[in-house]
Write a structure and sequence with these properties.
Helices cover 57% and strands 13% of the residues. The protein is built from three helices and two strands, in the order H-E-E-H-H. Strand 1 and strand 2 form a beta hairpin.
C-alpha cells in the first residue's frame, strides 16, 4: 500500500446522513463523516427530535378541530393542511434519513 492509498483510506467517508434542513439553494443537505458523533450530527439529532415533537403537537391540536361538528372556514382548513403537510415532510425526511442508516440484514437480497 502506498502512502497515497493509506491516506485516502483514512479520509474515506463511511457514513452519509441526510440532514433535517436544506442546504444552499434549497437543496437537500448531507453530512459525510467517518461514523463518529460530531457536533453537527448531535445538532441534527436535536432538530429531528424537535420536528417529531412539533408534528405530535400539531396532530393533537388538529384532531379536535376536524371533528364532525367543527365549522371551519376554507382559510382555516388551508392553514391546518399547510401545517400538517409541513410536519409530514419533516417526519418523512427523518424517516428517510434514519432508514438510510439502518444496516442491511446479513445475507439479504439488496431489493
Amino acid at each position: 500500500m502506498t502512502v497515497d492509498d493509506h491516506m485516502s483510506a483514512e479520509i474515506r467517508p463511511s457514513h452519509v446522513r441526510l440532514l433535517p434542513w436544506k442546504g444552499p439553494e434549497g437543496k437537500r443537505a448531507h453530512l459525510i463523516t467517518d461514523g463518529t458523533r460530531t457536533p453537527l450530527s448531535l445538532l441534527a439529532d436535536r432538530i429531528e427530535n424537535q420536528q417529531i415533537e412539533t408534528a405530535t403537537v400539531i396532530v393533537g391540536l388538529v384532531q379536535p378541530a376536524l371533528a364532525e361538528d367543527a365549522t371551519l372556514t376554507s382559510d382555516e382548513l388551508r392553514g391546518i393542511a399547510g401545517r400538517l403537510i409541513e410536519s409530514l415532510r419533516d417526519v418523512l425526511n427523518i424517516a428517510e434519513s434514519r432508514g438510510q442508516r439502518i444496516p442491511a440484514y446479513e445475507g439479504s437480497d439488496p431489493e
